[in-house]
């Protein structure tokens, strides 16, 4: 884009930001924060394409003013931490919402393939899950306890191991995005195939409903945040493939920073999922209604955090 076109496209916004800075006491702090982010984006673009121009100097000065105003009252780390969790994470979620949708669609597709393939090929489940695991599950089903696998071992040790393992899977889904999204796609697809095959095994032996009330006590959060982590990885890969008006390196840096914020938001959910799997899922047969309540509450928490809240903030701060 020519510099004149860049200025023409953004000059009204810059004038509005200058007015907000001049009347900072009357402006919502969140709007000032949004203005600062927009300025740094424009400044990065100007530094890349017009490094010696007056536009670059102007935006740099404006960004410095904005930074001083925003952070002069946020000197404590507690304020910065609160701002991060109350604002920055939701903005990052909104910015990479499309890759997260792609991640969900890919995971659901893999689930369907795993389920259908298992139905039409009796050896497929064993290929995916392994003979030992399948035989153990069948024995548990015949014994009237289809999800007995979740009752093995120590609760605390199991919860800790599961949490660490889930975070590892999420991190791999995130970091493998650097391989042009292919690595992340593999993580999502392989896990989706496994989940679909696992569910068919219960369906085949007529304990589908009972198994669901066990698996999804922890699986609602666990699988949802793996999809979120996959969305982070796809966002990174797409930033390299489709850098838009930025250089590939600059696009990669900007998107990785956003995706990392979203990934951080999944850690508390993984801890909750691990705790549920280690301490609660083993008691799934006590009350089906308690299981349904936990599943519903978990689903609402995920939907609110990654869909409703980011959209509310997008409307409030005019990200839409």
Radius of gyration: 24 Å
Strand content: under 5%
Instruction: Give the low-confidence spans.
Output: none
Mean pLDDT across every amino acid position: 88
Shape: elongated
SSE ordering: HHHHHHHHHHHH
Structural class: mainly alpha
Largest sheet: none
**Number of DSSP E strands:** 0
The residue fraction in helices comes out at over 70%
Distance between the termini: 23 Å
Tally of helical runs: 12
How many domains make up the coordinates? 2
Transmembrane segments: 169-189, 223-242, 262-280, 286-307
InterPro entries: SpoIIM-like
Organism: Sphingobacterium pedocola
Protein name: Stage II sporulation protein M
Provide structural commentary.
With 320 residues, the chain is an all-alpha fold. The protein folds into two domains: 3-73, no CATH class; 95-316, no CATH class. Helix content is 81%, strand content 0%. It contains twelve helices and no strands. It has helices at 3-22, 29-49, 54-71, 77-95, 97-120, 124-129, 131-142, 155-175, 182-204, 208-241, 248-280, 288-316. Helix 1 (3-22) runs parallel beside helix 3. The longest helix has 34 residues, at 208-241. The radius of gyration is 24 Å and the shape is elongated. The mean pLDDT is 88.
């Amino acid at each position: 884009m020519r510099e004149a076109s860049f200025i023409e496209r953004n000059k009204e916004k810059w004038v509005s930001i200058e007015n907000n800075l001049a009347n900072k006491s009357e402006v919502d702090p969140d709007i000032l924060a949004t203005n600062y982010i927009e300025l740094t984006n424009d400044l990065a673009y100007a530094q890349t394409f017009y490094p010696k121009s007056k536009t670059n100097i102007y935006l740099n000065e404006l960004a410095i003013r904005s930074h001083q105003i925003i952070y002069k009252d946020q000197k404590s780390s507690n304020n910065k931490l609160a701002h991060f969790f109350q604002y920055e994470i939701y903005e990052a979620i909104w910015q990479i919402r499309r890759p997260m949708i792609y991640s969900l669609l890919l995971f659901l597709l893999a689930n369907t393939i795993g389920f259908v393939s298992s139905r039409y090929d009796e050896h497929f489940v064993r290929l995916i899950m392994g003979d030992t695991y399948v035989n153990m599950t069948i024995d548990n089903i015949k014994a009237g306890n289809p999800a007995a696998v979740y009752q093995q071992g120590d609760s605390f040790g199991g919860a800790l191991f599961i949490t660490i393992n889930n975070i590892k899977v999420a991190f791999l889904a995130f970091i493998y995005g650097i391989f042009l999204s292919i690595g992340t796609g593999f993580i999502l697809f392989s896990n989706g195939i496994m989940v679909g095959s696992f569910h068919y095994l219960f369906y085949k032996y007529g304990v589908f409903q009972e198994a669901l009330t066990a698996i999804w006590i922890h699986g609602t959060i666990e699988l949802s945040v793996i999809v979120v982590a996959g969305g982070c990885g796809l966002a990174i890969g797409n930033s390299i493939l489709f850098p838009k008006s930025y250089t590939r390196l600059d696009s990669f840096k900007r998107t990785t920073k956003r995706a990392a914020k979203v990934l951080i938001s999944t850690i508390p959910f993984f801890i909750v999922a691990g705790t549920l799997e280690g301490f609660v899922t083993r008691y799934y047969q006590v009350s089906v209604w308690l299981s349904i309540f936990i599943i519903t509450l978990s689903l609402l928490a995920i939907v609110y955090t990654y869909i409703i809240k980011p959209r509310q903030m997008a409307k409030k701060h005019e990200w839409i």
